Amino acid sequence: MDRNKGILLVLIGAICWGVGGTVSQKLFQQYGIYVNWLVTVRLLISGGLLLFVHFMTKERAQLIGVWQKKRTAMQVLIFGVMGMLAVQYTYMASIQLGNAAVATLLHYTAPVMIIMYLVLRRQSTFTKRDMLTVSLAFMGMFLLLTNGSVSTLTVPFVAVVWGILSAVALSFYTLYPINLLKEFDSLVVVGWAMLIGGAVLSLVHPPWKINLSHLPVEAYVYLLFVIIFGTMIAFWFYIESLQYLSPKESSLIGSVEPLAAVVTTVFWLKEPFGFFQWAGTACIVYMILFMALYQPKK
């Protein structure tokens, strides 16, 4: 039951992240919202909301307790900057300098990085199950994002660099907070990390230096969705899933994110959906079902 709960959490988180990406794209293209501003605001507001939810519903002492030990305080600071902020900024930079297809494809090489890291550290072995799930995830994402055409992956070298860095950041984001989650609630860990990341980025891109008076009501609804579901729920549920699943399982199931992004792009933004994209969808759905139904031996 705990494992199924973990799978459900990471699925919801990944879907929220994928749909939030599509809504963010609409904000960038139709309403002229700046990437740096959106990243800063979504981190600050989402982080504050998560800490407020914890304050109202759970053990309040943890909110301060995480800062009372030098070790855990340093871990939260590192996770906020090198995990939370790094994941957000590198991914958006790769999209801005290249395109969403390449950025997402590179971003989700993270599961392989995680598996290889765990194998090299002798914390895990590379099994036939790993080979199958990684192959299905990569094949599904490639077909989804390219529709079988490699020519769509031509982007500037700097965009590729940012994309690879986003995969490294996602790997770090998945692996680093494991020990913190053993001591503190995921709301506390993710909430403080978001506030720290948003505060650091606001030094470079102050969120108050923008005029939003020209935006229609629907734009504010989209902003609210990106902040609540595309950021707060997405990151919280993904980190929470690590209490029930291994890091490599969470990162692999998280590959449903590009599926959610593509599907919402097709049905909401009315973009075409090709045969190879349907094949990619089948690969990812099969991978998720396989991981959900297959119980590895202890």
Verbal overview:
This protein has 298 residues and is an all-alpha fold. It has one domain (2-293). The protein is built from 14 helices and no strands. The chain has helices at 2-31, 35-57, 61-65, 70-97, 100-107, 110-120, 128-146, 157-175, 178-183, 186-204, 217-241, 247-253, 256-267, 275-293. Helix 2 (35-57) packs across helix 11 and helix 4 (70-97) crosses helix 10. The chain is globular. The two termini are 16 Å apart.
SSE topology:
Blueprint: H1 2-31, H2 35-57, H3 61-65, H4 70-97, H5 100-107, H6 110-120, H7 128-146, H8 157-175, H9 178-183, H10 186-204, H11 217-241, H12 247-253, H13 256-267, H14 275-293
Helix pairs in contact: 1-11, 1-13, 2-4, 2-10, 2-11, 4-5, 4-8, 4-10, 5-7, 5-8, 6-8, 6-12, 7-14, 10-11
Counting structural domains, the number is 1
Number of DSSP strand runs = 0
Q: What is the succession of H and E elements?
A: HHHHHHHHHHHHHH
Major sheet: none
Give a short overview.
It contains 14 helices and no strands. The protein has 298 residues and is mainly alpha-helical.
Which keywords apply here?
298 residues, mainly alpha, globular
